[in-house]
């Protein structure tokens, strides 16, 4: 059993579902140039390097979380802070983007990571799903 994906029994169905999500993601219009420029202006260079990736001891072998291996990472850009709610709202307003949860009316909660899953509400107040 995987922590984040289905086992072999549902692979065909999941592949089709994943394909549908990919089509949806690719159909979102790019944000206008001014929104993109504002977000890109804050990015900073992160130098490339070689690092070790994967778990020392596998917990979920189905996730291919081991063996550890050396990976070369090229220089990339990253924001020095998380995307703000305002930034996210600007992108949503500019593109009409809707999350999977908004489209489907529900969202996963990793209940196995909760201290007391029975105390978790059906859905938090104020959420549209």
TrEMBL record:
All residue ranges annotated as the Sulfatase-modifying factor enzyme-like domain in the record: 46-111
Gene3D superfamilies given in the database record: paralog of FGE (formylglycine-generating enzyme)
InterPro entries, A to Z: CTDL_fold (IPR016187), Sulfatase_Mod_Factor_Kinase (IPR051043), SUMF_dom (IPR005532), SUMF_sf (IPR042095)
Family annotation (Pfam families): FGE-sulfatase (PF03781)
Source domain of life: Bacteria
Protein name: Formylglycine-generating enzyme required for sulfatase activity
Organism this protein belongs to: Rhodobium gokarnense
């Amino acid at each position: 059993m995987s922590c984040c994906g289905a086992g072999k029994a549902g692979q065909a169905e999941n592949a089709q579902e994943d394909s549908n999500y990919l089509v949806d993601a690719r159909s979102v219009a790019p944000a206008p140039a001014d929104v993109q420029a504002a977000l890109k202006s804050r990015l900073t260079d992160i130098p490339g390097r070689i690092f070790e990736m994967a778990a020392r001891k596998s917990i979920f072998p189905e996730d291919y979380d081991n063996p550890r291996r050396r990976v070369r990472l090229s220089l990339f850009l990253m924001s020095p802070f998380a995307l703000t709610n305002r930034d996210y709202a600007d992108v949503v307003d500019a593109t009409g983007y809707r999350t999977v949860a908004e489209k489907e009316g529900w969202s996963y909660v990793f209940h196995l990571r909760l201290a007391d899953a029975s105390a978790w509400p059906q859905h938090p107040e104020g959420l549209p799903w």
